[in-house]
Structure to design on (849 residues):
């Protein structure tokens, strides 16, 4: 909503020193979102005056029409002599009053006017168009032709109101009252503590039986319809400059006097209106739902097929307008040729003569009905925007009266005595709210007097002491709950006055173990150099083929969405890898080649038997049984953690050579997660879907003596890299975080520092090359017993000449320590020998000579 400051001052006596920025700050403090303040004419400098065209000479021999004019500007040029001006426009003629920029003037865009030789003549100024003065859309884009009575030599800046400030307000859906100058003026009056001159306070005649006949067949869709008739409109009457300029400032294009007046009143009072050419209306005007097969050509010239849910305005022939959205072309006002859409049929015959009699409609339509009609026909209008957000039903009669007054004043019309008003019974909207309710909501002691005063300022009637009975004003349909009233008190008292207080949670309500584990894992992976990259939980089933999953893989069973955001991704993910690999691909394509990304999130597995829960009610709180039934129908949603790597894991530099990311980094990321969960991870050779069969680790945990696979890690298969467009040697890991939580320690244990020294024993074992190092390590760990503190593989050596064909050497560092004493050499050696012995039995390992 654009609000000119000059128009706002008509209804609120703002201090003369207040600028648009000052008003913006005040309105923002009361809760209105004033986005910008536009300074019209800020870069405009005179002299800019009214001139009368004395002569027009057509210049020949040029590629485009050029005219040499002499213009009388009175004494504005200091000599009183006619001003010579060369002009290319053709929408004016001799005797017309125009706007002249004299030498020395500066127009918007820093366009400076000076005397200059052009087209063989001396031009001393410029005849201006609305575009050149940045006046907004006037529909013509040509030279401004002023009314004949305009005084020659008058200052055009003042005449055209070129200097002003316009507030641009983003009106929220609940504040339809602020889609009007009246509504914004009310907010400004409250913000400044000044009285409001309400433009809707007019003397309105009582309804009588002489008005234009109206029949409302759908009171639910139209609860109020006011009709007034004005006759004897002058065909020569045009919108005055002040009216056209105000419409331009609020962003409405001037069209014709009758239409301009209805638009002006709508912007002023917030009540949409429509004017029908009385000669083109046949019989009684009615309001009803459309019938099957009916069509309507609206003012934009489009023929529309109506739906039975559409609320329409009709006469004896059928629909003549979409209620609250747009009027029909058959009853269009035709003040002069070329105004509005081109009428057809009877309207074309009527348009041959200017409109001299109009029927004015000021009605109140159901917000939901108007919104649905506007969306169904993809036809949003200024009227529908207001009805959708809520219009003051009590303003209809005042808006009709204001329109009648302006038509009589500006078009020389005569207001007929008949006044029609069809209104459904109205019940005031009353709320009961404790006087201290705003205090409890805001945590501030406002007190009863402040609450009552603020509610009365917005137009509420308030009664009662500790329990307030509040009647909401007709222009605020959004005040429906006690919290709505509390919000009004809080915003008017100032959001900035609310103290910053921390909530006081009851004891024992901290993070759950699952939440703490989730955060620890995120911090650990971030500390290891990974960047969190959350992704959408949607995927296409085609990605399973790209990942190389078997046809019977459980991950292919997905939960499909009934109304997905994208038809290309209709299923919920069963793995985090598709989203993460997509993020890696996008970043690699944008030049970031060294990547380490991770994500923790839910995956979704359908239940073995599909269950459908009944829709929950909206008129009451669901029962515990209904909520339980809904929960039982939800898919399984375990939390997973995944990481992907590509490019360099360690950068090269002066410190030495770098290192590319490989499968071992993916395995280490899994171990990092397991350590945070307090779980012991078993790593062994595996083969699954997207991973390279020779570089894939199967990750498992022990549950009651039985191993359970919880994930995989390693390098992705080249076919997968090609299918997904990923960098070479991309690595990944994915773990079931909930499974790790089940077997992990409830609380991570801090490392224990011993006062006794460690005994280190190194062993090099020779085994067959196919034997996994993890199996050898597991045997060493079990054979060493309780004295073993840690074991580390520090060397792998292969040499057929020294070790034998198909053999390899694995060197381990074993650290032994006792909790209560210093170990002797014999104790450490005995533990080492026991470990080597068991490794030999299980894997065929022998000590390397």
């Amino acid at each position: 909503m654009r609000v000119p400051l000059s128009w706002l001052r008509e209804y609120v006596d703002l201090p003369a020193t207040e600028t648009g920025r000052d008003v913006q700050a005040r309105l923002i403090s009361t809760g209105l979102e004033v986005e910008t303040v536009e300074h019209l004419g800020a870069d405009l400098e005179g002299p800019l005056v009214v001139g009368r065209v004395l002569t027009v000479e057509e210049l020949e021999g040029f590629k485009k029409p050029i005219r040499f004019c002499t213009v009388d500007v009175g004494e504005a040029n200091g000599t009183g002599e006619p001003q010579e001006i060369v002009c290319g426009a053709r929408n004016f003629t001799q005797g017309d009053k125009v706007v002249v920029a004299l030498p020395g003037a500066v127009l918007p865009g820093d366009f400076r006017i000076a005397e200059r030789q052009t087209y063989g003549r001396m031009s001393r100024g410029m005849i201006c168009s609305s575009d050149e003065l940045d006046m907004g859309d006037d529909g013509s884009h040509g030279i401004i032709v002023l009314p004949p009575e305009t005084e020659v030599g008058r200052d055009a800046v003042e005449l055209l109101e070129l200097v002003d400030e316009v507030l641009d307000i983003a009106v929220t859906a609940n504040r339809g009252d602020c889609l009007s100058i009246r509504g914004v003026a009310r907010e400004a009056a409250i913000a400044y503590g000044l009285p409001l001159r309400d433009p809707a306070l007019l003397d309105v005649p009582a309804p009588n039986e002489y008005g234009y006949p109206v029949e409302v067949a759908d009171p639910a869709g139209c609860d109020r319809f006011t009709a007034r008739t004005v006759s004897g409109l002058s065909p020569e009457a045009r919108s005055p400059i002040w009216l056209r300029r105000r419409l331009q400032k609020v962003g409405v294009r001037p069209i014709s006097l009758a239409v301009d007046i209805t638009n002006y009143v709508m912007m002023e009072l917030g009540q949409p209106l429509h004017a029908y050419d009385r000669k083109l209306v046949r019989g009684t005007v009615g309001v009803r739902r459309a019938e099957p097969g009916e069509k309507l050509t609206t003012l934009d010239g489009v023929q529309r097929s109506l739906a039975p849910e559409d609320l329409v305005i009709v006469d004896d022939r059928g629909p003549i307008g979409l209620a609250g959205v747009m009027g029909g072309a058959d009853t269009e006002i035709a003040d002069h040729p070329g105004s509005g859409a081109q009428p057809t049929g009877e309207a074309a015959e009527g348009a041959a003569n200017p409109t001299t009699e109009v029927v004015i409609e000021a009605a109140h339509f159901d917000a939901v009905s108007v919104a649905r009609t506007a969306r169904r026909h993809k036809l949003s209008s200024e009227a529908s925007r207001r009805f959708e957000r809520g219009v003051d039903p009590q303003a209809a009669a005042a808006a009709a009266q204001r329109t009648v007054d302006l038509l009589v004043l500006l078009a020389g019309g005569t207001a007929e005595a008949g006044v029609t008003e069809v209104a459904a019974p109205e019940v005031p909207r009353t709320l009961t709210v404790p006087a201290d309710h705003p205090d409890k909501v805001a945590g501030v002691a406002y007190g009863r007097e402040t609450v009552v005063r603020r509610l009365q300022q917005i137009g509420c009637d308030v009664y009662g002491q500790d329990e307030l009975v509040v009647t909401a004003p007709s222009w605020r349909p959004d005040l429906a709950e006690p919290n709505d009233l509390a919000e009004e008190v809080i915003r008017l008292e100032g959001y900035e006055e609310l103290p910053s207080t921390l909530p006081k949670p009851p004891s024992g309500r901290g993070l759950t173990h699952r939440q703490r584990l989730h955060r620890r894992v995120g911090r650990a992976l971030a500390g290891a150099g990974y960047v969190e990259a959350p992704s959408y939980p949607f995927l296409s089933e085609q990605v399973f083929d790209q990942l190389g999953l078997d046809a019977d893989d459980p991950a292919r069973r997905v939960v499909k969405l009934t109304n997905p955001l994208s038809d290309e991704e209709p299923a919920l993910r069963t793995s985090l890898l598709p989203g993460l690999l997509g993020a890696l691909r996008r970043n690699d394509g944008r030049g970031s080649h060294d990547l380490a990304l991770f994500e923790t999130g839910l995956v979704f597995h359908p239940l073995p038997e599909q269950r459908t829960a009944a829709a929950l009610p909206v008129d009451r709180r669901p029962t515990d049984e209904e909520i339980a039934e809904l929960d039982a129908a939800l898919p399984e949603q375990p939390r997973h953690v995944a990481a992907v790597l590509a490019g360099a894991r360690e950068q090269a530099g002066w410190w030495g050579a770098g290192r590319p990311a490989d499968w071992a980094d993916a395995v280490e990321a899994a171990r990092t997660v397991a350590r945070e969960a307090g779980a012991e991870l078993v790593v062994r050779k595996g083969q699954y879907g997207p991973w390279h069969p020779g570089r894939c680790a199967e990750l498992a945990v022990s549950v009651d003596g039985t191993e359970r696979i919880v994930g995989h890690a390693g390098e992705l298969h080249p076919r997968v890299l090609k299918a997904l467009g990923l960098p070479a040697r991309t690595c990944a890991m994915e773990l079931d975080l909930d499974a790790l939580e089940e077997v992990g320690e409830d609380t991570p244990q801090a490392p224990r520092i011993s006062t006794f020294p460690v005994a280190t024993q190194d062993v090099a074992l020779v085994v067959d090359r196919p034997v996994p190092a993890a199996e050898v390590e597991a045997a060493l760990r079990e054979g060493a017993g309780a004295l073993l503190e840690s074991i580390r593989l520090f060397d792998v050596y292969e040499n057929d000449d020294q070790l034998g064909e198909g053999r390899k050497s694995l060197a381990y560092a074993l650290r032994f320590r006792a909790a209560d004493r210093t170990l002797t050499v014999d104790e450490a050696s005995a533990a080492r020998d026991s470990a080597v012995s068991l490794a030999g039995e299980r894997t065929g390992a022998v000590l390397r000579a």
Notes: The CA atoms of residues 160 and 241 lie 7 Å apart. The domain at 2-42+165-192 is CATH 3.30.56.10 (Phenylalanyl-tRNA Synthetase; Chain B, domain 1).
